[in-house]
Amino acid sequence: MAIEIPRAVRWHDDAVRIIDQTLLPGEYREIDLTDVEDVVEAIQALRVRGAPAIGIAGALGLVASLKPHLILPQAEFQDRLLQNARRIREARPTAVNLAWAIDRLLSLRNQRPGASNEEAWEDLRSQAIAILDEDREMCRRIGEHGVALLREGATVLTHCNAGALATGGMGTALAPVYVAAERGLKVRVLADETRPLLQGSRLTAWEMDRAGIEVMILTDNMAAFAMKELDVDLVIVGADRIAANGDVANKIGTYGLAIAAHHHGVPFYVAAPSSTFDFELASGDEIPIESRGPEEVRSGFGRRTAPENVEAYNPAFDVTPAGLIAGIITEEGIFEPGDLSVLYEMKTRS
Asked: Is it true that domain 144-349 has CATH number 1.10.10.410?
């Protein structure tokens, strides 16, 4: 069965074309990014979001930002490459995919000594598009591994948005759901609305409804009770960074969801491509957590919801300990958090 899957980020006419996710679900609009500051603004303002999609947008954005500078002397072009790469790489600190993608492009700098600016730019463009193509394939493989966890009529609870809008393909946490739908398997999705920016109700529900997949929205504080009352079979969430011991950084609220799932005996899974693993970090305690502005909590979508002078705590992510996670669904298969050394060996060999 053919399923309509949105394309969150792609290369189009020497620009990064993204869906502006800040406008969904009320308005569908695609915008093109060519300037480094526009790329950074789009990432920081969450016009493009989700760890894999941010990495892809950063890589494609770096390439697009260099096109006007091909006329510079080679040394100045290389300086511009490093400046733009640094600016984009620092746009958001928690999702490892952004740094990974930018570093992958920078690794090409010395591979073709004497190459012209045009040749160097084409190498960068090819590599960035390869990152996009690889992510699309990784999402498909995550879905094919993860669908084995689903049965006819299964209810899957998810948090934030780890679907097509967060990646270059069909998503991570939602990839098994998309594959199930393609195979004619009926699955119901419960989507936490995900405060403060409502990526679950605005984006996950939009995706699922668009694909004809049954979806129900929950406010975040309903999730634990829903596990008791709505026959939740499993939880699947995405990830922004995974440490060597299996601790997972994901959208704020994931940690509490994992605790509730543990209490109710509901299996809690994380879905992520291998590019999201950071084996240089021993545990989640070392993962940098982005802190966002208080206005995201004190107001919402044009209306003040708290007194202006009241302090607001607004970490964008939290860290779920490996002990609460039943398995991590990757393009290489499903791994228990304690067995990640196998995945590490696969990554180092590739």
From this structure: no
